[in-house]
Design brief:
The complex is a heterodimer of chains A (132) and B (431). Chain A has 132 residues and is an alpha/beta fold. Chain A is 49% helix and 23% strand. In chain A, the strands form 2 sheets. Chain A has a 5-stranded parallel beta sheet, sandwiched between helices. Chain A is globular and about 40 Å long. Classes of the chains: A alpha/beta (132), B alpha+beta (431).
């Protein structure tokens, strides 16, 4: 069984190309809207969430905070994928909402794959601990 | 008149003279040069502190009492009186026998007979008190002068300090302006990076997945070939492989990927092209142009990018004189504003362009009845890379370019908007 990852980005091209690259390895679900993504998260379990930072009306950090409110302890590991370089807000988010990686666009496939695997592994570890 | 009377009168006159000399503190003296006999009046004796006794005084008596430092000067004056025959007057320091010092004004003149000096006479006045007052005054004057010099130096110092401070301030200001510029360059660079990184990102990812998909398709082709030529691969194997690679997806995805790559490249090129518009260094010169023509050209430039029918009403007052501007740039500025309005309206929307003349300015208003701009975002609309449109639909540079052009022309551009009712941009250009 493949692990599930959710990728949110307002640009459909980013979603399509991400899906095309990783569809063989993971169960990739994509969404262009953070609002829609929250609905998806209510019904499906993911081992990793990826989000763009700069989206119309909302930032990735804001979206992930909403996810945190929704899922609380059950929140999987999250990554920000952005064209901006890392800034203070994102640095803060590392502590606040359990952000574990920041990947800047354009990403390299090997780096992205490695981070995805690492994130999934951390989520699984955490789930195992809470279930004990 | 008898002799006695005359003698009495002489005595009286001498007494009066002596009395007035005493009161004025001024004595007289007389030197018979030929006989070398010196006569001093009573007051002269008193001034020099010498007992009244004619046998005791000579010409040297006075000279020896002059302060050694001033004997030279006194000598010079007397010499002059002999040689050049001019009277003299000088203040000399006198040291009395008991050691007290006095300042005495000596005036004298030499009398000649056939060029032979035979007599020198004059006065001696005790001016110690005057000198003391003069010295006191001088002291005060010196003190005042010193104070003035001191204060002037202080003033000069504080002026220099003020100058230095001003210089420092100007330097700081220049640095501030520079860092402000640098920070806006930095902001611009960050914006460019973000805008470019997105298309580059999906161009890159599509290229990766395309390579893999094509690989899969070639593998599939080989299987078909094996199947038809040698029958070494079964149809079942082929079907299994197709499922494995999700052929349905690959089939659709390949063309989409190629299209996305092309779109990404176009977007990147557009961003770079619009950046070129941010600097006007290479731009043409100012000339006079009609606002009417500018608006008409801008409308046709803006509308040619849209397929749909547009409802644009242009009203311009007839009396607007031609203005001094760079026509291509004004046209570009207006085109961006009109494009912005077109993108804000729906199919039934109306755009109004109205131009009129004021006292010193031409006003061009471009209003739409579209969605309007959120109040919080209104003062950011002229920032480079600020956009409310969906990503890919605008670079976020259009309005900032318009803003730059209008400012460069000495004009202003303002925006009013109400959500749900529409937006009005007003361009003001100097007449």
């Amino acid at each position: 069984m493949k692990y599930s990852i959710l990728y949110v980005d307002d640009e459909i091209e980013n979603l399509r190309s991400f899906y095309a690259v990783f569809r063989r390895d993971f169960d990739v679900v994509t969404s262009q809207s953070p609002k829609e993504a929250l609905e998806i998260l209510k019904n499906q379990e993911f081992q990793l969430i990826l989000s763009d930072q700069k989206m119309p009306g909302i930032t990735g950090i804001e979206f992930l905070s909403q996810v945190h409110e929704l899922l609380g302890n059950q929140m999987p590991k999250c990554m920000i994928v952005s064209g901006y370089t890392k800034d203070d807000i994102i640095h803060e988010a590392f502590q606040k909402i359990g952000l574990f990686a920041f990947i800047s666009k354009p990403w390299k496939e090997e780096v992205m794959r490695e981070k995805i695997n690492e994130g999934i592994h951390l989520t699984l570890e955490k789930t195992a601990q809470t279930n004990h | 008149m008898d002799v006695l009377n005359i003698t009495d009168k002489l005595i009286l006159l001498t007494e009066r003279l002596n009395e007035s000399q005493r009161m004025a503190n001024i004595g007289s003296w007389d030197w018979d040069i030929l006989k070398d006999k010196v006569w001093w009046s009573d007051q002269t004796y008193r001034i020099f502190g010498i007992e009244l006794d004619a046998t005791k005084i000579r010409y040297e008596t006075f000279f020896n009492m002059v302060h050694p430092d001033e004997q030279g000067i006194v000598n010079d004056h007397i010499k002059k009186a002999f040689v050049e025959k001019i009277p003299y007057s000088l203040d000399s320091r006198i040291i009395l026998e008991d050691g007290t010092q006095k300042i005495v004004n000596i005036q004298g003149q030499v009398l000649f007979n056939n060029n032979l000096a035979y007599r020198m006479h004059g006065t001696a006045q005790d001016v110690t008190w005057r000198k003391e007052i003069e010295n006191e005054l001088k002291k005060h004057r010196d003190f005042l002068e010193e104070t003035i010099i001191e204060r002037t130096a202080e003033l000069r110092e504080s002026r220099e300090y003020a100058f230095k401070t001003l210089e420092q301030l100007q330097k700081t200001q220049t640095q501030l302006i520079h860092s402000e510029k640098m920070s806006s360059i930095g902001q611009l660079a960050a914006g460019i990076a973000h805008e470019l990184n997105n298309p580059i990102n999906f161009i890159n990812a599509n290229a990766m997945s395309l390579g893999r998909d094509i690989n899969d398709i070639i593998a599939l082709l080989h299987m078909y070939r094996e199947h038809s030529e040698n029958n070494s691969v079964s149809m079942q194997e082929i079907k299994d492989f197709e499922r494995e690679i999700d052929f349905e997806f690959v089939d659709k995805h390949i063309m989409q990927s190629a299209k996305d790559i092309q779109n990404g490249v176009t977007r990147a090129a557009e961003i770079i092209h619009s950046l070129k518009n941010l600097s006007f260094a290479e731009e043409a010169e100012f000339s006079t142009c009609s606002i009417d023509d500018g608006i008409i050209r801008a409308v046709s430039a803006a509308t040619k990018n849209f397929d749909r029918e547009l409802n644009i009403i242009v009203e311009t007052q007839a009396d607007i004189p031609p203005i001094n501007c760079i026509p291509g740039q004004i046209e570009k500025a207006l085109t961006n504003l009109i494009t912005n309005a077109i993108e804000a309206i729906d199919e039934n929307g109306i755009i109004k362009i109205h131009a009129h003349k004021g006292k010193q300015w031409v006003y061009i208003e471009i209003s739409d009845d579209g969605s309007g701009i959120d109040h919080a975002q209104l003062n950011r609309v002229f920032e480079p890379f600020f956009t409310t449109k969906e990503v890919g639909k605008g670079t976020g540079l259009g309005l900032s370019i318009s803003h730059g052009i209008i400012e460069k022309h000495g004009g202003k551009i303002t925006v009013n908007s109400e959500t749900g009712k529409g937006t009005k941009f007003t361009v003001i250009l100097p007449l």
